[in-house]
Amino acid sequence: METNNTTTSNGVHNTHTKDNAAKIVFGDPVLCAQFLKGYTDIPLFKEIKPEDIENVSSHFLPLFQESRDSDTVNKIWIGNSEIYLIALIEHQSENDFDMSFRILRYIVFIWTDYAAQQEKLHKGTTKSKDFLYPPILPIVYYEGSSTWSAPLNFKNRVFLSDVFGDYIPSFNYLVVPLNKYSKQDLIEKNDELSLIFLINQLQSSSEFHALKDIPKKYTEHLTEDTPDYLLKIIGKVIAVLLHKLNVPDEEVYEVTDQITRRKFSMMFDNFQAYDVQETRRVSREEGRLRDESKANVPGESKVNVPGELKANDSI
Q1: How many of the other CB atoms lie within 10 Å of CB of 11?
Q2: What is the secondary structure of 53-71 as a DSSP string?
Q3: Cβ atoms < 10 Å from Cβ of 251
Q4: What's phi and psi for 124, nearest 5 deg?
Q5: Angle in degrees, CA 234, 239, 242, rounded to 5
C-alpha cells in the first residue's frame, strides 16, 4: 500500500494517499448513497437516501486491532422498518488474495459487537429462537488497472473445501472495479461521485486534458445543484487524487479553488500540471547521460594534469 505523508493546499493531511480519498467519499452519506445506488446493482439500494446512512467506522476501528484507518463501516436503514444493515466497504489499489479472510474477520467483529449491544438492551436475547444477526454487505472498491482475480468466496481459500465444504464458512464479497466504467459511463451518472471517479481514473497528470471535452451540460448540473459543503468534500478528495499524480501544490490549489467557486469548466481549461517526481527523474537521467558522454570522448580526462588549467580556473 502506498504510504506518503502529504499535506494538500487546502489542508488535507494524508498518510495513506489512495485509501484516504476513498475514506472521504464513503464517509459522506450523500456520496455513499450515490455509490450504493449507482455502482452496486442491488435493487434494495435503488431508493436509498443519505439520511438512511450512518457512518460508524470510528466505533469498529478498535475492534479491528490493526491500522485500517481507511476502511469504512456504514449502518444503513432500508425502508420504513429499521432493517439493520451494515455495509463494509474496503478500498484496494491492487489484488489482495487474502481479502476474503480479512472480510471474514470484520464480519465476526461486527456481529460480535452487535450481539453485545443487544445483550445490554435485553439480557439473554441472543440465545432466543427469534434472534437474528443483521446482514453484512462486504464491498471492495477496486481502483487498480488490472482485473481483480482474487477469489470472491472464502471457501475457495481453504484446502479440501470440496470435501468439507458444508463445514467451511461460505460467503461472497462484492467487487466494484473503477476500471469497469468508461468516461461516458461516468458522465451519464451525472452526479458528484462520477466527477471524483473520472479524476480517480487518471493514471498521470497529462491525462487531465482528456477531461476538457466533458459536456457542458454535465458541469452545469454540478455547478447548479451541488451544495457548498459537498463542493468542499469534492475539493478535498480531488486534491488527494492529484497529489497521487505528483501534481504541484499550485496546480492542486488552482483546481480545488475552481471547484469550491463552482467554476467546473475552468478547471479543465487551465490545468497545466506535470509530474514533479518524473520531471526530476528525467533531469537526473539526462545529467547522468551527459556525464557518461563526456567521459567517453577521446582526449578528455577527469584527471588534472599539473600545469594545465581547469575549467573554473582564472587566467
Answers
A1: 8
A2: EEE-HHHHHHHH-S--TT-
A3: 20
A4: 85, 0
A5: 125
Report residue 225 as a C-alpha cell: 445543484
Phi-psi group of 246: left, alpha or beta (phi > 0 → left; psi -120 to 50 → alpha; rest → beta): left
pLDDT, tens digit (0-9, with 9 covering 90-100), for 222-268: 888 888 888 888 888 888 878 877 778 888 888 888 888 887 767 66
- Looking at residue 77, its amino acid is W
| HSE value, Cβ hemisphere, 13 Å, CA-based, for 98 | 3
The burial of 98, by beta-carbon neighbours within 10 Å (0-12 exposed, 13-18 middle, 19 or more buried), is given as exposed
Spatial contact of 48 and 41, defined as CB atoms under 8 Å apart: no
Residues 16 and 14: their CA atoms lie apart, in Å, by 6
Quick: pLDDT tens for 10-51.
Answer: 343 433 444 467 788 888 999 999 999 999 989 989 889 999
**172: helix, strand or coil:** strand
Q: Among 263, 283, 264, 286, which Cα is nearest to 274's?
A: 283
Chain centre distance of CA 6: 15
Q: Give the residue among 143, 136, 191 at the shortest CA–CA distance from 22.
A: 143
